[in-house]
From TrEMBL:
Biological function: Cilium-specific protein required for the stability of the ciliary architecture. Plays a role in cytoplasmic preassembly of dynein arms. Involved in regulation of microtubule-based cilia and actin-based brush border microvilli.
Entry protein name: Dynein axonemal assembly factor 1
Species the sequence originates in: Acanthisitta chloris
PANTHER family reported for this sequence: DYNEIN AXONEMAL ASSEMBLY FACTOR 1, PROTEIN PHOSPHATASE 1 REGULATORY SUBUNIT SDS22-RELATED
Gene Ontology MF annotations: dynein complex binding
Alphabetic keyword roster: Cell projection, Cilium, Leucine-rich repeat, Phosphoprotein, Repeat
Localization per record: Cell projection, Cilium
PROSITE patterns referenced in this protein's UniProt entry, alphabetically: LRR (PS51450)
A Pfam short name: LRR_9
Length: 251
């Protein structure tokens, strides 16, 4: 059990402070705990590692008002709940659990990173709540059971979404021209799945959306011409510097 004595023993083993409220980090992963409890005295925590246990419920975090990062991946959690006290939470990892619906996150006004990969999300309704979480900029939905292309409408409503991972979901196969479509519709996206979205990628995708493959090809050629010119200008500048240096030597 996660008793006060057990927590204190862990602090001693990890060379943390024996006075609970002085600790800003607590490592409780791989301990086999099945209930989250007895953290009332750990009021100074900013980072809490709870992954790889047997927790079935998020609870008893009322005292962790300073928490910035919460790691709950690889547990048995079925519901997102009881996070209201964590008003400073910026990063939440609840991947590899048994969650069927994204909910109860709109209370976290500064939440920027949500990792909820390897869960049981399936429908548009299951992720609809994300529209009420405008602060999220990094979202990992990979390896769920999302199938409906209409999830894009939810993602479009997230004004600060910069990083998105949908790998391992069937929906990728159902969205025509998947990568270009998402780049066009998610205006602030800078990273999609396993690759960055470069300015060239966005310009070509937007050209494709307006004028099809021919417009995309023309835009790509423009970028390649500019890139070649930039490289040539660099070579020319270097050659000019070298020539000046040689002329100085001869003088």
């Amino acid at each position: 059990r996660m008793t006060k004595k057990t927590l204190l023993d862990i602090c001693k083993q990890q060379d943390l402070y024996w006075t609970p409220y002085l600790n800003d980090t607590l490592y409780l992963h791989y301990k086999g705990f099945d209930r989250l409890e007895n953290l009332e005295e750990y009021t100074g925590l900013k980072c809490l590692w709870l992954q790889c246990n047997c927790f079935t419920k998020i609870e008893n975090l009322e005292a962790q008002t300073e928490l910035r990062c919460l790691y709950l991946q690889l547990n048995l959690i079925t519901k997102i709940e009881n996070l209201e006290p964590l008003q400073k939470l910026g990063s939440l990892n609840i991947s590899n659990n048994c969650i069927k619906t994204i909910e109860n996150l709109s209370c976290l006004k500064v939440l920027q990173t949500l990792q909820i990969a390897h869960n049981k999300l399936q429908t548009v309704e299951d992720i609809q709540h994300l529209q009420e979480c405008p602060s999220i900029s990094v979202l990992d939905l990979s390896h769920n059971n999302l199938r409906d292309p209409n999830i894009i409408t939810v993602l479009e409503a997230m004004p600060n979404l910069h990083v998105l991972n949908l790998m391992g979901n069937e929906v990728i196969k159902k969205i025509a021209n998947y990568r270009k479509t998402l780049i066009v519709r998610l205006k602030k996206l800078t990273y999609l799945d396993d690759r960055p979205v470069f300015p060239k990628d966005r310009a070509c995708a937007e050209a494709w959306a307006v004028g099809g493959l021919e417009a995309e090809k023309a835009e790509r050629e423009k970028w390649e011409t500019r890139e070649r010119k930039k490289i040539q200008d660099s070579f020319d500048a270097l050659a000019a510097i070298r020539q000046k240096a040689e002329e100085k030597k001869r003088q």
